[in-house]
Design a protein that fits this description.
The protein is an alpha/beta fold. It has 2 domains: 7-61 and 315-412, Aspartate Aminotransferase, domain 1, CATH 3.90.1150; 76-313, Aspartate Aminotransferase, domain 2 (3-Layer(aba) Sandwich). It has 12 helices and 13 strands. The chain has helices at 7-19, 76-88, 97-109, 122-137, 180-189, 217-228, 248-252, 281-286, 297-313, 315-336, 361-371, 391-412; strands at 43-47, 50-53, 58-61, 115-119, 141-145, 172-175, 194-199, 231-235, 258-261, 272-276, 341-344, 351-354, 375-376. A 7-stranded mixed sheet has the order 4-10-9-8-7-5-6, sandwiched between helices. A hairpin with a 2-residue loop joins β1 (43-47) and β2.
């Protein structure tokens, strides 16, 4: 099986490093892609479940641009909807009627939603949600889960990160995931001071196994928040619409006050949304929050088309089923080589780890060997499954994985 080379990509990165901090910054940074020589850094085009890099190599994409691709790159219905508003004018001196249509659709789609607000990034709406909670409660403190990711604003980042000062996290209380008693203790130790609890619907940090909520966890958290007047915020930026079209809270059976969406909401077009209960609508109206391009009509039209199509085909069901099929096959192939490939998290958004080497070097090598043969895997982050992944993609991925296991078995034997 042919292995890829990345001459153009590597040359571009050298140029980028001269004029851009880190060359490529943030979550697209090559830093966690180990071994780096097995990965492309620059993409050129995408269609369906595949993308091509600047060297012409074709990949089955199991990162889906880190989540935004949910229906397949260049989905015709989504692109046609966006193109209509792009042609007539996407960013004009006034809001578009499609904003109202999208808000109405989200309110109908998501059981807990009585209103919707639109921005651009996941971090925009997690920030806005916390501001609303503080305004509504008159309190300062926010409880969050250690290792949880909600964006890059200073309050979101852990102590020790560059550019973060003590004042940024003075009112942040960190607890462990799935430990209801820790949340209860935090509430008792900070009486009348906690504005919000923010968390993802299940724990999906990087570099470690993901964890689903324990039985009854969210129901107990919700009850305590309701009793103590704490705003319950769910960061559904990654999971949103990959577990349930009504929000991941529907999948796990609880009702938050605010839900943050991004990633899959518009199949790659730049938009995020915050939805909330009627009780917080007035506070949301009072909190000033806006941005230069937040009223662009084309991404809103793309979002409306994306959500309608996902609902029509029952996208979460498709992704969960496709993910299970892929993962069951990979686990079986790994076992044939004497390896335990552990799968955690939801099948539509799984995290994988070969447990036979705690250093993760073996797993990193396997992911890299798969990538340089055309199945784009990362070793540090959860993967994403889309509705565009086909049975042919899955079978091809199994063949690639099998050959990659042969390579690492020989290397580590």
């Amino acid at each position: 099986m042919k292995t890829y080379s990345y001459k153009n990509s590597q040359n571009l990165f050298k140029r980028a490093a001269k004029v851009i901090p880190c060359g490529i910054y943030g979550h697209f940074s090559p830093a966690p892609l180990i071994p780096a020589a097995h990965y492309p850094f620059f993409a050129a085009s995408g269609r369906g479940s595949h993308f091509k890099d600047v060297d012409g190599n074709d990949f089955i994409d199991y990162m889906c641009a880190y989540g935004p691709m949910v229906l397949g790159y260049n989905h015709p219905k989504v692109e046609a909807a966006a193109a209509k508003y792009q042609k007539s004018g996407s960013c004009l001196m006034g809001a578009s009627s499609v904003m109202v249509e999208l808000a109405e659709y989200l309110v109908d789609l998501i059981p807990v939603a009585d209103w919707a607000f639109f921005a651009k990034n996941g971090g925009d709406v997690t920030n806005y949600a916390v501001m609303i909670a503080r305004s509504a409660t008159g309190r300062k403190k926010v409880v969050m889960v250690g290792g949880g990711y909600h964006g890059v604003s200073p309050w979101m980042q852990a102590p020790g990160h560059h550019g973060i000062i003590e004042e940024d996290y003075r009112n942040i209380v960190r607890i462990n995931w799935n430990r209801y008693e820790e949340f209860e203790r935090a509430v008792n130790e900070n009486p009348g001071q906690i504005a919000a609890f923010i968390a993802t619907p299940y724990h999906h940090p990087t570099f470690v196994d993901n964890e689903l909520p324990a039985d009854g966890y969210w129901q107990k958290v919700q009850a305590l928040c309701n009793r103590e007047g704490i705003v319950l915020i769910i960061d559904d930026v990654r999971c949103g619409f990959r577990l349930s079209m009504g929000g991941s809270c529907e999948y796990f059976g609880f009702k938050p006050d605010l839900i943050c969406f991004c990633k899959a909401i518009a199949n790659g077009h730049p938009i995020s949304a915050l939805v909330g209960t009627g009780a917080l609508k007035g506070e949301a109206a009072r909190v000033f929050f806006t941005g230069s391009y937040w009223y662009q009509a084309a991404p809103m039209a793309a979002s409306l088309a994306c959500l309608k199509e996902m609902k029509r085909i029952n996208a979460p069901k498709i992704m969960l089923e496709k993910g299970k099929k892929l993962l069951d096959g990979l686990v079986k192939i790994a076992a044939g080589y004497g390896y335990n490939l552990k799968v955690s998290g939801a099948a539509s958004m799984p995290y994988l780890r070969i447990t036979d080497d705690e250093s993760l070097m073996l797993h990193q090598d396997w992911c890299g060997e798969c990538t340089r043969r055309g199945a784009f895997f990362t070793s540090h982050h959860n993967w994403f499954i889309s509705t565009a992944h086909t049975d042919a993609d899955i079978k091809r991925t199994w063949a690639i994985a099998d050959e990659a296991f042969k390579v690492v078995k020989k290397k580590y034997s």
